[in-house]
Specification:
One of its GO terms (biological process) is lysine biosynthetic process via diaminopimelate. GO terms for molecular function: 4-hydroxy-tetrahydrodipicolinate reductase. Keywords: Amino-acid biosynthesis, Cytoplasm, Diaminopimelate biosynthesis, Lysine biosynthesis, NAD, NADP, Oxidoreductase. This protein has five helices and eleven strands; from the N terminus they run βαββββαβαβαβαβββ. Helix 3 links the parallel strand 6 and strand 7. It is α/β, with parallel strands linked by helices. The longest helix is centred in the middle third of the chain and has 17 residues. The chain folds into two domains: 107 residues, Rossmann fold (3-Layer(aba) Sandwich), CATH 3.40.50; 90 residues, 2-Layer Sandwich (Dihydrodipicolinate Reductase, domain 2). The strands form two sheets. A seven-stranded mixed sheet has the order 3-4-2-1-5-6-7, sandwiched between helices. Strands 9-10-8-11 form a four-stranded mixed sheet, covered by helices on one side. The radius of gyration is 19 Å and the shape is elongated.
Length: 204
Amino acid sequence: MTDLIIQGINGRMGHTLVEKISARSDCRIVAGVDQKAGQIGDIPVYASLEDLPEAKGIVIDFTSPAGTVHAAQFCAAHGMPCVLCSTGLSKEDEAVVEQASEKVPVFRSANMSVGINVLIELARRATKLFDGEFDIEIVEKHHHNKLDAPSGTALMIANAINEEAGGKYEYVYDRHAVRQKRGAQELGISSVRGGGIVGDHDVL
């Protein structure tokens, strides 16, 4: 039985994890971490990782860049594997995560969806097949509460395409102040925020 600790357990993804993991027999949630401490069913929720009665298990983080960095540092210090799923990390944040991965197992992804990862692989193959003879635009849509733009998933897709193309593309996020023809090596990324959209990503 694998013990799991969910940081961000009171959030949307935290609730989803509680629902999905409770139906499994090979793992269990032994604790949650969130700003609002308390209880979710039989799961104790603590205000911080430092409040855990025992530093043991795998930490799954769905919080914020600051929360992700803290989780990485805590897990590295206590020899705990971690799964980091937050988006919007800076280069400095990514460096902290990379340092943690030298001490403990770290799984990092901006999107855990099978469908998105299939889309990324298809985008890679299309890039190789057409060899850059086409324009690329990525349009991502999310609910109005999402903080970062573009989404981490949109950047994952763009980075996969750019890696396959040898890094020749320049990302363009805003064209309203630029009155000129679209460059051949531009990769446009547009963000839409509204309503309760969970997350849509189109590669054009």
